[in-house]
Amino acid sequence: MSDDAKGEPRTEDAGLDADGVESGATASSSALAPTGDVTFDALWNRAIAAWDDDRPHAALVAYAIRTERLPDLAGRYRKLADDPARAERARKRLDGVVLAATNLLYSTKTPVPTKTPWQWTATLAAIAAIVVGWLAYRILSTAP
């Protein structure tokens, strides 16, 4: 693709509209609007241009994980799943995004709570015994 005067990639040369979708595609342009993240948009345009190549899609998923843009990416693939020409691969890519999000959730799972050390339990039991002993002494020593 060639660059225009502003230094932005021209999508018209590849038959793509401003959202990175082919002109005849059925995907809604509101869901595929530019995100404001130039790198994400460039990776998306590259993935669309090389639809059958797995490497641009893998790079896009990796970037989306790092920048927490998996929902944006899933929305874009979901819109392309409605396009008959790209439905099969778009669903496959969407499943990959869901798998990446699930793995991300599992990796941030809180660890299992550890057992309280016996020394803490013994110390609290000793303090409780001392307090109960002192209270018993005060109650019994002030009896008439």
**Sheet of most strands:** none
Order of helices and strands: HHHHH
Shape: rod-shaped
Radius of gyration from CA coordinates: 30 Å
What helical percentage do the residues reach?
55-70%
**How many individual helices?**
5
The total of beta strands comes to 0
The fraction of residues in strands falls at: under 5%
Counted up, domains total 1
| Unreliably modeled segments | 1-31
Topology, please?
Blueprint lengths: L37 H12 L4 H13 L3 H11 L6 H21 L10 H24 L3
Helix pairs in contact: 1-2, 3-4
Describe the structure.
There is one protein chain. The chain is mainly alpha-helical and 144 residues long. The protein has one domain (1-112). The chain is built from five helices and no strands.
Give descriptors for this structure.
144 residues; mainly alpha; 5 helices; rod-shaped
